[in-house]
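Note on ligand handling. Small-molecule inputs were canonicalized before submission; formal charges were left as drawn, and no protonation-state enumeration was performed. Where a ligand contained multiple stereocentres, the stereochemistry in the source SMILES was retained. For A1CAB, this procedure yielded the string shown in the input block below.
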Amino acid sequence: MAFRRILIVGFGTMTGAMVDGWLAAGSDASRFEVCHPSKTEVAHGLTVHNAWPADTYDAVLLGVKPQMLDDVAAGLEPLIGPGTVLLSVLGGVTIDTCKTRFARAAGWVRFMPNLACSIGKSPNALFEAGLDAETRHAVTQLAEEIGTAEWLESEDQFDLVTALAGSGPGFVYRFIDALAAGATNLGLPEQQAQRLALAMVEGASALAARSEHSPAQLAKRVASPGGMTQKGLDVLDDGGALVNLLTDCLRAARDRGAEMAKGPAAKG
Ligand SMILES: NC(=O)C1=CN([C@@H]2O[C@H](COP(=O)(O)OP(=O)(O)OC[C@H]3O[C@@H](n4cnc5c(N)ncnc54)[C@H](O)[C@@H]3O)[C@@H](O)[C@H]2O)C=CC1
Ligand SMILES: O=C(O)[C@@H]1CCC=N1
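Structure output:
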């Protein structure tokens, strides 16, 4: 079985990037429909419904902001019967919350992509409840069309995985900016620093992805003993500075997910 008809509720940055990826991977635009109360057109000429459609779909992809869940849940529920799987990309919204809102669904999936799905490079974290083996396979296929499928067998680590793989691009973009800002602080023209930082990260990550060496080994291959790179690495490694900073960063993002899961009052 494959998901042939998917209704998207909340067609924004994230679900738009997912559709870009699915279309690039060969899906036909007719596979997707969008439900939005005010939009008349969306990218790629997908069909837009301004009211809840009286139709059935293999899957509903929920992509509104988490704070908007209860604004759409009551209207959407009648569309999600025993033939429809609920796929949610909402950060900090648990499977139990999805089950409560859409109790009759064929199954519930937390599907955590990142924006690189638009180029087929998203590590997609997945957690499900209620799926049979065939439907779980269909979700795996859907994820693999836009990157990789990483199933979690327990929801406990979902917020941490979201912080790492979903929010991660935000942290990497900040790192690229910071590299460029550092070089600018030291005298390089800003535009040139940004160009070099971005091209360097692109090349370094592409190489790491296809190298037989781990990132730790690659760092050693760059650093000549007593040379320039080692001096720079010593700054990052001093007292575990970089690891500590990134642990704090991931902890803050992860814990925000748990806070959001407690309910609308916690959603800032
Ligand atoms: N942006 C990212 O990199 C990632 C976002 N996510 C999740 O994706 C979800 C959406 O985030 P973004 O795409 O960044 O936000 P966004 O603001 O770009 O998208 C939300 C969309 O929902 C639409 N919307 C609002 N009310 C609606 C309604 N009543 N009916 C139908 N559509 C409605 C908005 O017009 C907008 O297009 C969030 O829950 C977030 O946690 C998950 C992973 C990564
Ligand atoms: O910032 C957020 O809450 C969402 C979840 C992962 C990426 N964006």
